[in-house]
Amino acid sequence: MRLPAIKVYRAFRAFDHMPDGDCERYVRRVRANAGAAHAVGPLVAAFVIALAWFIGWPFAATVLPLSRYIPLPDSAEMQFILLVATGALAVGVGSLIIRDGLMYEALRRELARTDCRKCGQSLLGVPISRIGVDPDPAKSFIKCPECGRKFCLLDIGLAPHDLVPLEQRHLPKDLATIRRRVGA
Ligand SMILES: [Zn+2]
Predict the structure, then answer these.
(1) Taking the model in full, what pTM does it have?
(2) Which residues line ion ligand 1, judged by CB < 5 Å?
């Protein structure tokens, strides 16, 4: 695993050849499908951290000689300002870490959907063989180029468009013009 600098999706090699705009569109789609946990998780984290911080530190200060271990200001007002400032920082950073952690996990799961169920090789871009001309997932099959295992798309919950390589999924910016020109 590579550590993402700022953008979570840059932790995955699958996005290496995609510009930020396309990655962010992909991330937005994954987030929209990820369910309530992604929206609620960072808020819950913020609430729990705030609770722990603003109750934990004042409590610790009553039972421990904190000023012996931490350089604290002498006045109660300054100690209160320090508590609020560090608490806000902890809440902000903590909820961002939870948000990015949830997004990392959602992206990992989404990318793993198109991996071979037997050996883990990516099946993106692997040609699909069909029985008949219908693009029916029940009659569409794919063979892992690594281990040779054959899968029916319906059985592994994939549609043909799921297997299009990520870098080929973006739409040209002038799609509306192209459509008008060809009369589509
Ligand atoms: Zn395989």
Answers:
(1) 0.73
(2) 116, 118-119, 121, 144, 146-147, 149
